[in-house]
Prior knowledge:
The longest helix is centred in the middle third of the chain and has 18 residues, at 274-291. By secondary structure, the protein is an alpha+beta fold. 30% of the residues lie in helices and 27% in strands. The mean pLDDT is 95. Helix 1 crosses helix 3, helix 5 (228-242) crosses helix 7 and helix 9 (409-422) crosses helix 11 (468-484). Strand 24 and strand 25 (465-467) form a beta hairpin. It folds into 2 domains: 4-181 and 402-484, Aminopeptidase, CATH 3.40.630.10; 184-395, Alpha-Beta Plaits (2-Layer Sandwich), CATH 3.30.70.360. The chain starts with 10 loop residues before the first helix and ends with a helix. The chain has 11 helices and 25 strands. It is elongated, with a radius of gyration of 26 Å.
Amino acid sequence: MKNPVLSLDPQLMWEHFYQISQIPRCSKDEDRVRQYVLDVAERNGLSYEMDDVKNVVIRKPATPGRENAPIVVLQSHVDMVCEKNKDTVHDFSKDPIRLLIEGDWVTADGTTLGSDNGIGVAASLAVLESKNIEHGPLELLFTMDEETGLTGATHLSNKLLEGRVLLNMDSEEDGAVYIGCAGGRDTEFFLPLETNAVPADYSVVRVRIGGLQGGHSGLQIGVGLGNAVKLISRLLWNAADKMDIRLMHIDGGSKHNAIPRECDAVLALPTGDVAALEALAKEYDAIYKNELQLVDADVFVRVDSDGFDKSGETLTPNLQSRLLNMLFAMPHGVLAMSHAVEGLVETSTNLAVIKTHADKISVLTSQRSSVNSGLDTVAQMVASVGKLAESDIHPTNGYPAWQPNPESSLLKLATEVHKDLFDEAPEVKAIHAGLECGIIGDKFPGMDMISFGPTILGAHSPDEKVNVPTVEKFWRYLVAILEKVN
Length: 486
């Protein structure tokens, strides 16, 4: 029975979306979908090239009379995030995505849909096969392994592209045109473990911060959500000023790009001071609830004092002092707002993870900025705090920013086209997270870029769905831009 998705318009684009949905294409398992893309090129008699990491560019000549137009690069990534509901039977290594239509939405049966970025891939292939679109010379770039670290774009050969006008089709909001994204890097700190025995007359307790929402360290850093590592460091720093606490271990956060939701610290202190610590925790519980009432009202501070082993060891006073001062002083949150795009967070840092290991304490932070010099500066600022704490500092190279250019010629064209088609200008935006455009622009100086797409909700989750009417609008917009580039 024919899948109802195949009856949607534009039919050629939905046909390609259906076909790639039948091909397993989790990140790092892209051989089969890459071959599909190459098969489409070959059956249309088009040349292609592949670099060392198997990014593919297909070249389509201009339609008659448009040979002198600028080369336009259409860019998308072929991999998808593979997630499913617990009760869904699905093997992503061999099973096709089961496509469903629910009202105005295309979704999947209990799994991620892969519209991120299958819609972009399908649009490129539809342009490739279309016989009735006027356009200049085209380079259709298909990158690999975007979802697990922008790997394909990072290792993209800087000899693969000639064009300097790029349309990225990996955005998820109808009516919006993106002109910038943040670059990012991580900075990790290590403090070698130095310990003493727990004094005989001390009690062992656990301090816990929880109830926070957490969130994406790029997309939600500007909301002002609570950071459990920052909150516990504030409490412990003040506790250490009032009583003889001896930290044993501290653990919080899970990922570099997530704001920590929970953090636990186990510590020893004189038995007579336990009540004072509980009172201080209660005080800070009220303070945090008041400060975060509009964004993280469920935050809590709790002291648990039963059943903890006293046979462990505590950090030496010197190490504890260096650690608590480092955590309390370490910046977290928004550091600068953009002057180019109203409301855009330009520069931020996330105090992401702290973990006590057998031989060291590690602290992971993550920096972002849409201005590369700003990224350098915030990483240096974070490193300077680590230097004051005499920690070992391990920065990563990360990925570059795509700095917004409101004066972009391509943006002006895209704005005019949007007004002509839809009687309104697009919303011009940038995102405080990573897009492949930042890396590609760094490899190919002078690249004029925009990013756009249809409305996609719930990407990276089994709730993912793409809005059908906006896919048709996206297609019309793409075709009109190609026809106007001169």
